[in-house]
Specification:
44% of the residues lie in helices and 11% in strands. With 214 residues, the protein is α/β, with parallel strands linked by helices. It has 2 domains: 4-15 and 86-213, HAD superfamily/HAD-like (Rossmann fold), CATH 3.40.50; 17-82, Orthogonal Bundle (DNA polymerase, domain 1). It has a 6-stranded parallel sheet, sandwiched between helices. Helix 8 (167-175) links the parallel strand 4 (160-164) and strand 5 (179-182). Helix 3 (48-59) packs across helix 4. The longest helix has 18 residues, at 65-82. The radius of gyration is 16 Å and the shape is globular. The model has no long low-confidence stretch (mean pLDDT 95).
Amino acid sequence: MTDAVVFDLDGVLIDSEPLWDDVRRGVVASAGRDWPADATEALQGMSTPEWAAYLTDVVGVPGPAEDVAASVIDEMVTRYRSELPLLPGAVEAVQRLARDWPLGLASSSPRRLIDAVLEAAQLTDHFRVTLSTEEVEAGKPSPAVYNEVVRRLGVDASRVVAIEDSSNGLRSAAAAGLRVIAVPNANYPPAKDALALADVVVHSLDEVTTGLVG
């Protein structure tokens, strides 16, 4: 029995991971620093303060972390305004599930980008709760963002389905006690141990039907 559904944003509804990677790499290259081999995977799921600190403290981008974050987010907004990279079936999946359940959104994107994406996609009104990891104490794989979304929805975590794609996202939702549907991103596949945490693995959002969720 399902009482609510919580979507991830990046990699589930929008194909933003390549943009995040490109923009962050650009910032690092402009600073004359090298991109660490494990940086792309490490950054997935981090909250804004966490990934900004990673770029300054680990990679060595100069300047305050807040300024680095602002430059990355400004460029992401510019990219989204140019073309919103919605994944196939994203709008339809949200509309389909919203007819039967209250929806939440648990995203590692900053609030500014969450609101921009949902407004551009005309999906804002379909979500009862939206939350950024920058608004809780830790980013994914911590369960903090899912714990808080579930609390705000007023439902029991064991009766909530999360829809996730990344290793850290899958770990976050599972740690919060949600049932998890994995929709792996082919370009950024999750680790095998993280994928094993999913209750169901599908290949596209078209497979996320009311029958599957319910």
